[in-house]
Amino acid sequence: MPLAPTPDVIPLYIESQAARSGAQTGSFGLGTATAESAEPAAGATGTTGASQLDLEELSARHGVEVPPQSLRSFGTYFNAFPASYWRRWTPVREVTLTIATSGRGQIIVYRSNARGAIQRHDMAIVSRPGETRFDLPLTAFGDGGWYWFDVISGPDPLTIHGAQWTADASAARTEGTFSIAMTTMNKVSYCLDNIELISKDTDLREKLDVMYVVDQGTDRLNDHDEIEPLQAAMGEQLQIIEQGNIGGSGGFSRGMYEASTNGSSTYVINCDDDIDIEPESLLRMITFADFARTPMLVGAHMFDLNNRSVLHAFGESVDPWAIQPKVTIPEGRLGHDFAVEPLRSTPWLHRRADVDYNGWWTCLIPTETVRAIGLSLPVFIKWDDAEYGLRAKKAGYPTVSMPGAAVWHITWTDKNDALDWQIYFHERNRIITALLHSVYERGGKVLTESQGIDVKHLMSMQYYTEAARLIAQEDVLRGPGVLHDEIGTKLPELRAMAQTYDDSLTKADADQFPEVRMHKPPRKGRAFSAPRRSMLPLWTAKTMARQLIAAPPESSAAHPQAAIAHQDAKWWTLSHYDSAVVSNAEGTKLAWYRRRPEQVRSMLVRTARTHLDLYRQWNRLRDEYRAAAEGLTSFAAWERTFSENPAPVRPGIDDVDTAAPSTPEGASA
């Protein structure tokens, strides 16, 4: 049951209504759809179910009291058993469901198949205190499917004291312990909450070797009194390492390095700092990794921290043609809300998602894997997790994104990282990943798509974003030798550059800008819409000609022509204006975009040149980056980077330089 039973998380744990499958009927293997969707159950949504639950039912962590004449279903994200994943990746072919109850009622065990069809598997009537056991085969879950159980109480309450899914321990490959690698920068409150959560979980503490918190910020954990009792409670199980800001790849690599050289940890779990952990998830990840036939990466899913019943992604892969993340299940989608569409009634959630990588918001990696393939690429913040998953897969270490294991985290839709300084790392690291892993000539469509994105930014008056992208492309051309040397210096350069572009100079409130004035409004007051695909070449040529040649009217320099919300700031809309005030994704700031033809002309020449150079030199760069990859990710290379990037002394705070960690020692890859 949830640690904090609020209405927005209850649908992930328990429901109070029966559900019908949304699966379609079969077509007898003829390849034609005779299907009709099953009739949805009236009111069978998590929202309705959750509202009928008395929160007092959920006062226990591992039990629940079901009121008289009521149904409670555990066919939910955190309580159903993802049978197909255990069938695919482990030797387990039977699991046992054991339920401890008191009171009278029925227990019904259900299963589903990969199409999401619900099938009743077994049932039992309970009338006295005791345990009920179901032995459940996994043989028929080749492509997908879950097990779960519902309970129906009689005239009196029925209490569930606990339930477990277990397997024969002799089938496990190992019984491992783990360390946590959490990297943080100026997010003290999140870190303190997560350390406290880990410190209080005795089951986790039994498996935990060390929680490494790699602090790269200026507001440091050790500056806060709240850390002292947590350090005292955890002792040697908590180690705070202070170093310079060398990004997520630097922070995670430090934690991975420490865990892989401490001589005890079977696994390291990379965790972001700004997450809310369901601690049971870590135990499930470790258990699954123990049972996996071969060592493998086990990732947790990510729920939306601001909308807690919404799952960001069920499983992600890298599109080999575009080198872009994609949803693995064709019918799947980002942002699935379990409060609206429960697990039992959503067919695509029953199909197993086979992935290329898992985000490092929370991901278990065997230390054996780290010692075999090295640490992260020194790429600061983006693509480090995806590239590592692709590299591990090539070396024989697959990844699974494990249902029933999850954390809550801010989703990308609530961030501005496609327009701010982070775009440099998006662009550079994507191209590097293509050079390292693309199986297509000259990276498939990576270069053509990249140039198209450049043109869209220029038409949108996003000149800072475009400047950062151009520097990224030019830095790729410089080769892999600068990656470690510049890992701690590139961000300050990008932030300093932001002060020279209109679209990156922000203010907090709209009334800090001049009044909006538009002398020539849209034709007939219609909103701007995306050009039709058939007209796109002509439309783009006409629009770019205006961007390159036509001087903006003087009035647009004195007053913005429009105030545009972030979600409306599409390239086909912004391209019609000479200036506009645009809000950011977080809704915290605004910037005054202004069209500057001289910027467009200069940047258009640069993007044409860099993409032509990348195209011509692709094969040479590919060979150069691939030859350098082992050295870039080696323990020895990272040891030098750690030692060259100690935590900086803060004037007036650090009297002496005691913050820098000692030079790491350990085996090199």
From TrEMBL:
State the Gene3D superfamilies in the record. Answer: 3.90.550.60
Name residues in a coiled coil. none
- State which Enzyme Commission number(s) the record gives: 2.4.-.-
Annotated region described as Disordered, given as residue ranges: 644-669
Q: Does the keyword Transferase apply?
A: yes
Is Glycosyltransferase a UniProt keyword of this protein?
A: yes
Domain Galactofuranosyltransferase-2 C-terminal, chain residue ranges per copy: 448-643
One Pfam family of this protein, by short name?
Answer: Glft2_N
The residue ranges of the Galactofuranosyltransferase GlfT2 N-terminal domain are 57-168
What protein is this chain from? Glycosyltransferase
Which organism is this protein's natural source? Brachybacterium rhamnosum
